[in-house]
Amino acid sequence: MIDRLIKGIKEKENPTVVGLDPTYxxxxxxxxxxxxxxxxxxxxxxAQMFLEFNKQIIDSTYDLIPAVKPQIAMYENYGLAxxxxxxxxxxxxxxxxxxxxxxxxxxxxASTAAAYSSHIGxxxxxxxxxxxxxxxxxxxxxxxxxxxxxxxxxxCNNLDKGMFVLVKTSNPHGxxxxxxxxxxxxxxxxxxxxxxxxxxxxxxxxxxGYSKIGAVVGATYPEEAAQIRKLMPxxxxxxxxxxxxxxxAEKLQGCFNKDGLxxxxxxxxxxxxxxxxxxxxxxxxxxxxxxxxVIAMKEDLQRIL
Length: 305
Hints:
By secondary structure, the protein is of the alpha/beta class.
C-alpha cells in the first residue's frame, strides 16, 4: 500500500487526499429533492445522495490525487444503507486507481481487534474468502498499546495493506492527553507514541523506504509536527487540519522530509463542500468546484515541496 501510495503521489505530483466525509447539510438541494422523491424521507435516500455525491467528486478529481479517505461515521449514521454506501464508495474509488484510507479510528484488543482488522483483511467463511470492506489502509487509535495494533500487521505484510496510527491530532483539545508529561525521560505522550509507532513500523517496511504503518500528525501544530518528523524519518504522515481547520501550506513544511515525500495532506470540507462558498460554480457543478479546490490545494502545497 505505502509503495503504491508513494508512486501515486510522484506520478500526480500531489500529496493531496480528498476526505469523503459527506453530511446531509452538505448535499446540493437538487440531489436532496431527487433522492427523497425516489426513496422517501429515509436513510436509504440519504445514503444514495452520498453515493452519487461521492461518485461525482471521484470522477472529477481522480486524475489529480493519489488517495481518498472516507470517514466511516458519516455513513454509519444512516445504518445499513449508509454502510452499503461506504463500501460502494470504497469500491468505486479503487476502480479509478485510487488508494483508499478507511478512516475508522478503531482501537481494541484480542478477538475484537482481530475482527476490526477485517477492514484491511479477508473474512473466511468455510474456505470462501471475502474482502468485505475493501480499504487499502485504516486509521487506528493506539490508546490500548501494541495489542490494538498487532492484529493489523499481518494484513499489512501479507495483503499489502497499511495503517495510520493517531500520534498528534489536529483538534484543539487533543493536548489534554497528548501533551501530558510521562515517564522517567519526561516525554510528552505524543512523543512516546511516536517512538512506539516508529518501532512498530519496522515490522512492516515497504520497498521505497517507508513503513506501511504510518502516523496521523495534525497540521495545526507545526512545531510539534517538525519534532515528530525527526523521531519518525521512515514513517508516512497522514496530515489533517489543512484548510477548513485553519492550517496553510507553510504550517505543513515540517511534516515532509527533504525529498518532498513523507506526508499526505487531507482536506475534506475544503474540497467537497467548496461549491457552497463559490461564486463561480452552481450547486449542480459541485464536482467541478471540488476539482478547482484540489488544483488550488495542489498548487499551494507545491510551493513548499
